[in-house]
Amino acid sequence: MANNQPTVNPADPETIPKFIDPLPIPPVAKPVFHDSYYEIEMREARHQFHSYFPLTTVWGYDGMVPGPTFDVAKDQLVKVKWINNLPLKHFLPVDHTLHGAIDSPEVRTVVHLHGANVDWESDGHPEAWFTKDYARTGAFFRRMVYEYTNHQQGTTLWYHDHAIGLTRLNVYAGLAGFYLIRDSLERRLKLPSGDYEIPLMIQDKSFKEDGSLFYPDQPPFPVSVNPSVVPGFLGNTIVVNGKVWPHLRVEPRKYRFRIVNASNRRGYTLSLSNQEAFTQIGTDGGLMASPVQLNSIRLEPAERADLIIDFSTMQGQTITLQNDDPSPHLSVVLQFRVDLPLRGEDRSQIPAQLYPAMELHEHTAHTVRDLTLSATTDEFGRPMLLLGERMWHDPATEKPAYDSVEIWNLVNLTGGPHPIHVHLVQFRILERRPFNIERFQKKGIIEYTGPAQPPKDYERGWKDTVRAEAGMVTKIIMHFKEHTGNYVWHCHFLEHEDHDMMRPLRVITDTHPVQDKHATHT
Ligand SMILES: [Cu+2]
Known about the structure:
The chain is mainly beta. It is built from 4 helices and 30 strands. Helix content is about 5%, strand content about 35%. The strands form 6 sheets. Strands 9, 10, 11, 12, 14, 16, 17 and 19 form an 8-stranded mixed β-sheet that branches.
């Protein structure tokens, strides 16, 4: 490192110079044979989060943070052997009181491809975990080689760890990567591509003075458990594609950014510092029917956005991708420098029609479920959040029939928003509507107190994760098709997910599906 480098304390964001490192682009994963069989090894590595930091111990797919990017075609069968070559001891504080972590190996992994339409045995069920050399496996472990059929619209997925009771630590340690599916409809659109298509994985992290990753072993209130899960981890630096506050040099032209919020707990409201608008073309599940002009976009953990920023009128400018946060550090994410010469005419387009509109209609629903998000305390007196008033280990209650359409009313009683993720399906957000919490808690009846609100402009497409707003009923609709078996649904605040805000989702074959449809509340 240079002698004239400023005195940097990785633990103190005040001392960390911003926009020093260029934004890295994760390399594309390479099959080991037949263009379709991959082997990806989870291993401990040393990672440079910032040029002025010492190296940091991480756990990465192929030792990288983020992991290598899968770039596959729709309907192309892809097989991946996920290999756990991690140490036997965790380097982050494991809470052995959490579900699934009480009497099981300290280091367990299982890979979930988030947003995938996939057979349950390859979905990365939290109890399908395995240890090094598959020496020990969880109750739902079925296969070493996962199969992804990629039978779905082209989109930006991401893969990450999902081991029961450890997800927050394994993802924070670095186990996350991109998985892009491309289809021929999209190829015809002439969107910005190649060097002009850039994935952005946004995470918040905190570091110790020696550059190692910091994750708290205690909540900010006294508990009898040590180490103990915390209600939510919020870091004091922003990391994009594995670098703390990087910069990206761009040409004065259009760029496509595939953004995933891969943070444990932090949500972001992103905008450009020069107040210019940008265009959204896709949501979690793929391209939207038509593009949307936005000045800002909110992304909770696990949500994705496919955006086009047109730098053609910004030549010579330096622009920050900013986050709506009072902290001077957490309000900046990434710096764009529009200082590269235009290498050629920008022939990319943003067509007015992107993808055939496919809707799910309310009248086609077989089943409507009211599912609560509620707060309670666990046996140690710690706050704990639940779905449907049940814990993870309680018997499955959400058992949609194969080829059925369901409406879920996410009834949020908790006082804060939670990003709810349903495995296997892409859904539509129908509405959000305020209701009387007290009356619901006393009588179990939804009494609406205001008009229904349509989804936000940036949510009008396929979603697999939705912000269930506090004091609101968030109504989603989805079609369970193609697969049956053992999936899950959960809050994507990883500290909540690891502490019982997760439930089984069992898609069942039933020639006489139970018709528990009831009148929708009006
Ligand atoms: Cu939550």
